[in-house]
Amino acid sequence: MYKRIKLGIAIVKTGASFIMNVKSTLGVPFIVGFLMIIAIALYIVGFIYNFSTGTITANLYGIPEVTLSDMQKYYLWYWTFSFLWVFNLIAALSLFIIASSACIWYFS
């Protein structure tokens, strides 16, 4: 038990030393957050644009409905999958940037 606590303290000290020496890593989450907000906004606009390509019809009660062809539904599914892909790619790149900068700092 004592060895694990000692190891945990050593890891926290090394992490704090990394943050003190490489202060630029503190800006990475803010930049990534800004990129994610931009990606979300662009994908919302694109989703609305893709959804608006359908034909608008009225149902029995006079409420408008959007009917989509099979190709348009495929486009919406593709757009949704690409959003998830890009969003997770941005998150993974931020983790890679921080991890690689920590490795370069530690082994230099």
Description:
This protein is mainly α. It contains three helices and two strands. The protein has helices at residues 2-21, 28-51, 70-106; strands spanning 55-58, 64-67. Strands 1-2 form a two-stranded antiparallel sheet. Strand 1 (55-58) and strand 2 (64-67) form a beta hairpin. Helix 2 runs antiparallel to helix 3 (70-106). The relative contact order is 0.13.
Q: Which structural class matches the secondary elements?
A: mainly alpha
Helix content, binned percent: over 70%
Whole-number average pLDDT? Answer: 92
Radius of gyration: 23 Å
Tally of separate domains: 1
Task: Report the count of strand segments.
Answer: 2
Proportion of residues in extended strands: 5-15%
Q: What composes the largest sheet? A: 2 strands, antiparallel
Query: Low-confidence runs (pLDDT<50, min 5 residues)?
Result: none
Q: What is the approximate shape? A: elongated
- Largest sheet strand order: 1-2
